[in-house]
Amino acid sequence: xxxxxxxxxxxxxxxxxxxxxxxxxxxxxxxxxxxxxxxxxxxxxxxxxxxxxxxxxxxxxxxxxxxxxxxxxxxxxxxxxxxxxxxxxxxxxxxxxxxxxxxxxxxxxxxxxxxxxxxxxxxxxxxxxxxxxxxxxxxxxxxxxxxxxxxxxxxxxxxxxxxxxxxxxxxxxxxxxxxxxxxxxxxxxxxxxxxxxxxxxxxxxxxxx
Length: 209
Hints:
The protein is α/β, with parallel strands linked by helices. Helices cover 48% and strands 11% of the residues. The protein contains nine helices and six strands, in the order E-E-H-H-E-H-H-H-H-H-E-H-H-E-E. It has helices at residues 26-29, 43-61, 71-92, 94-97, 105-111, 115-118, 121-135, 153-164, 168-180, and strands at 8-10, 21-24, 66-70, 138-140, 184-186, 201-204. Strands 1-6-5-2-3-4 form a six-stranded parallel sheet, sandwiched between helices. Helix 3 (71-92) packs across helix 7 (121-135) and helix 8 crosses helix 9 (168-180). The radius of gyration is 19 Å and the shape is globular.
């Protein structure tokens, strides 16, 4: 299929050359810290994501592809890693398991915010950042977006929410891709299947469609 037209690519297909630049969604980056899946129906996606990350690392090392991650995507991953650590603690702690009033990990955190320190969350986040560096991922900082444009990011976010029916965080990702003039995005979020309507290429697993 020609890459001159917006296309959905199978990102585990090694016959497809990776683009020179690609923006990574949180649904991809999180597989850096996900070592296994206990759900059989998710195994194909897990395998595809891991293979794609390996391909990215090789391509980045060879300077043939630059994987990019906006700061808000990295922050979203931080949130996931923190939530996972506190949920695991609550599940293993009888005082929470037996307390029916505790309905979410946020309640556990609010009751004991020092869990951030007790559970070495900062160390887990630093490990995640080290893994991104090994992968060759460049984290896009706000100052990287300070280029001349007639359209503000917030206006572009609203536009993509309206035209592609995306939630704000996903529209934010596309708005940043626009600002960086990157037309290739990798995601395992089904909502991103619609981004070809806005002239973006999507790299994903065929298992999500």
